[in-house]
TrEMBL record:
Residues 52-71 bind DNA. Pfam families: TetR_C_1, TetR_N. Residues 29-89 form the HTH tetR-type domain. This is TetR/AcrR family transcriptional regulator. Keywords: DNA-binding, Transcription, Transcription regulation. It comes from Nocardia coubleae. It comes from the Bacteria. GO terms for molecular function: DNA-binding transcription factor activity; transcription cis-regulatory region binding. The keyword Transcription regulation applies. One of its GO terms (biological process) is negative regulation of DNA-templated transcription.
Amino acid sequence: MTTGEAALPRAVELMWGLAQPAGRGPKRALTIDQIVDAAIEVADAEGVAALSMSRVAKQLGFTAMSLYRYVDSKDTLLDLLMDRVVGAPPDIPAGTSWRAGLEQWAFAEFDRIGRHPWWIDIPLARPPMGPNNMAWLEVALGALAGTGVPEPAKLELVMNVSVYVIGKRRMLRDLQTVEGADFASVMARVLDPQRFPAVTAAMSGSAFDGESEVHFDWARADFEFGLARMLDGFEVFIRTFAE
């Protein structure tokens, strides 16, 4: 850091390996990786709301005060989790079309978040700044290389894909927490076809029917359909830069 520069956030220092080594004092008995792993275990079992420095310390068999030698606050811990959970981005082979590349990227993010659905409950106080998140962004922007789209617009396209992914994951998670929510059968009993002809016609097509004899992953199919329509729009937009 040069004179006049603000100090980096502690989470950024930790995620990018820039944290200063400890000075005098007892030998450190924990690592950042161990602390983050324990936090993931707690969140997997009890959700983000259960996360606290004391709860994570208990998971590790330490006191909360001892954790503060490594992680200065719960906010820093959440920043570390935000980056750790997403992990490394997908490997998109060179020569892949921009559309296929973004599709692979979106499905990879959809699946990765699905392993730890509580990730979407982490408050987004600022844009993610960890190396994993930057690697994901690099891959997505790289998929748009050669399209002729201006750099700021590329970033907007990628951000919109990610917002779509996170929104779908949030909806699926929230729907799964509602007990007895048999949407189709309940609505069939109360909807008047004369008053709601379009809704009745749509629902008669079994769009929400999960009782099919053939296994059908409705959630994934719905995600794929919406993503395809989004990319259709991207295609029209990108084509304007090739004309």
